[in-house]
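Running this now, will post back.
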Amino acid sequence: MLELTKSELSVLQELWKDTPLSVREVHDRMANGWAYNTTKTVMDRMTQKGLLERTQVHGVFVYHAQVSRAQGLASWVRFFADRVLELDDRAVVNLFADSKLYSERELEELQQLLDRHQPESD
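Update: finished.
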């Protein structure tokens, strides 16, 4: 299953809201205290890992997320359910069911991703 760092998730959250974006645009929107070079380094590494796609538009590199919002959420739901709450990940997904932040399609994709990576029981 995809595992995202907190830094990677922060970048992806900006690209899920609006895409494509340049490093400068992502950096300015995150407002997290990072130096510009830190944002650039994180995004370069994410491109190498296949999490982002970089294209050039009018001489400026812009980035597109190659990970869906549901895939990113699945990564963090798995982490949060297993390591923080010590709950089955389905219980955590149910917390999102009443939220207007995620579409029905995204929630279905999230559940499918989690089901696909469910550990085998002994």
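Strands lie at 52-57, 60-65. More later if anyone needs it.
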